[in-house]
Amino acid sequence: MLLSPAEIDYITKSCDRNIRTDGRSRLDLRPFLIETGLLAQANGSCRLRVDATDVVVGVKAEIGSIVPERFEEGAEGDRDEDDAEVVRDVQAQTEDGGDGATDRGRVVCSVDCAPSAAPYLSPLALQSLSAELSQSVSRLLNGPGGGLDLKSLCIIPRRTCWVLYVDAMILDSSGHLLDPLHLAVRAALLTTQIPLVTVQRVGTGALDLDYDVSADRTVPVNGAIGVPVTVTLHRVGTRLIADPTAQEERCATARVTVHVDGKGRVCGVKKGGKGGLEAGLVKEAVREGRRVGLDVVKGLDKVLEEEGKGQRVGFFAA
Amino acid sequence: MVPAANGSAFMEAGKIKVMAAVYGPRQRPASAGSTSSSSPVLLCDFKFAPFASPSRRGYLKDSSERAASLSLLRALEPAVRYEALPERSAVDVFVTVLEEDGVQASVASAITCASVALADAGIELYDLVIGCSAAFLPSSPDTPTNVLLDPTVVESTHPSCTGSLIMAAMPSLAEVAHFELDGSVSGEEVGESIDLALDACASLHGAVKAVIAGSGSGDTVS
Questions:
Q1: Rounded to the nearest 10 degrees, how much is the dihedral formed by the CA atoms of B50, B69, B174, A279?
Q2: From the CA of B177, how many Å to the nearest CA of chain A?
Q3: Residue B5 and residue A243: Cα distance in Å, rounded?
Q4: Looking at this predicted complex, what is its ipTM?
Q5: Hey, which family's this protein in (chain A) (predicted)?
Q6: What pLDDT shows up at residue B217?
Q7: What is the pLDDT of residue B143?
Q8: Whether A271 and B185 lie within 8 Å, measured CB to CB
Q9: Answer CATH for B7-213 from 3.30.230.70, 3.50.50.60, 2.60.40.1190, 3.40.50.720
Q10: Which of A130, B28, B84, B86 could form a disulfide bond with B124, CB atoms 3.0-4.6 angstroms apart?
C-alpha cells in the first residue's frame, strides 16, 4: 500500500491530537466478531474478524512421542538442525536429574497467510511474514509465559504425550495481524476438547504402561485460561496507538508488542519496527498494553461464556 | 581483529567472548530481500561456535541462533543511517560467539560488539547500540530487587527464574533500539527492569566510546 506524504502527515497529526481517521481515540480497539467451534474436524476452532481482518484457527490434538521417533533410531543423516536442537533440549533436561522436566506435551504452530491477505507482498515476503507470525505464536505458547500446562499433556512419562497442532490461516487483513492472531489462538485453545486418556499398568516395569483413548469423553486443555492476549502499540508521530488500521500501520516508526494474561502478568514484550523508541514510551507501552490487554481478556471471556446461549451465525455469515 | 573485514571488534564480558566482523557496504546479493526496492539493507548473522556451549552446537543455525540473528538486526537497524549508504548496497554483520554464558547475555554482548564493528567499518551511525540483559529471580535478603542484570547461564536458566530480557539502547539519544522480554513478570518489575537496564547501557556507553577513541588497541575497560 502506498501513502502520499500528505496522507502520512494527516494521519500522524491526527494521532497526536487523539482523533484517528476512523474516529477512535489512540488506545481504542475496533470491535471484533468471534465464533468458536465451527470446524468439525478440529478439536478446537475459532474464526475472528476485526474490520476486514479474517483469521481462522484450528487446533488438532494428536498423540505423539515425547522424543520424536526418528532420534531413537539414531539415523544421523536424516536429522536436520531443528531436530538436533530438540534432542539437545531433551537431553539437557534429562540431565537435570530426571525431575520430570521432559515429561510434557508440546504445541506446534503454523500460520499461513493467504495471498489474499496481503496482495501487495511478493510470495517470498508473504512467506517470511507467515514465518514471523508462526514463530511469535510458537515462542509464546511453548515458552515460560505461554500459560498452557504442558506437563498435563504428558500421557506416559518419557514416551507419549499430546501434541497440539495450532494452525492458523489469515484470509484477509486490515492492520496489524499479531493481535487478532493471538486472540483467535487463545479462543481456539479455550474451546479445545481433547479425548480423555486413561493409563493402565500392564507389567511390573516402571514403563510397562499402556493408554486407552476414550471415544466419547473429552476434557479441556489445562491452563488455556492462562494463555495471554497480545496488544501491540505503534508509535505514530510522538504517541502510541493501539490496533492500527493498515494506513496507520504504514505511518508507524516503531512498535511494542505486549503479551498479557488474565491476571495482569506481563508474559512477553517485544519491540519491532525500524525506528528507535524513547525509554519513556517503552514503559508507557507496557503500562497501557497491560491495561488494554486486561480489558481484552475480560471481553473475550465474556463473549465465549455467552456464545453458547446466542444464535450461531455460521462460517459464511457476513 | 579481522584484517579482511572493513571493520571488526572483539569483546569479552566475564566468560563471554564475542567477535564481530562487518563487510560492506558492498553490492547487495540477489537473495537479499525484494529486488524491486533500491534501498540498502543490513544483513545480520549470529552464530555460536560449535564449542561455545557445554553441549556441542551444529554448524547450521538452530532456531535460537536464527532468533538471535533477528534480534541483532532489530537492535542495529535503528542506529544505521541508511540514507548515507549507497543504493542497492548491503552491509553484512557476522557475529560469532566463541564462548557463551547464557543466551540472553551473549546476544546482548553481540549487539554491543557488532555496533563497535560497524563504527570501525565507517558505517554512519546515529549512536552506538549498547546491549544489556537481565533475569528475573525472586528476591532474597541480600538482593533487594527481583531484577538481576547481566545474568550468567546459571542465573538465567535457574528453575526459579521467572523471565529474562534483552535491552539494546542508544544512550546519547536516550532511545531504546530493541527490547524483548520472555517469561511471566508483573508490570512493576518490567518498569523497574527497563530503568535498571537503561542505566547499565548508559554506563557501558562511555567505556565503549573510549575504546573506539583509542581505536581498539586492546584496552580493558570495566
A1: -110
A2: 5
A3: 43
A4: 0.87
A5: Belongs to the RNase PH family.
A6: 54
A7: 63
A8: no
A9: 3.30.230.70
A10: B84
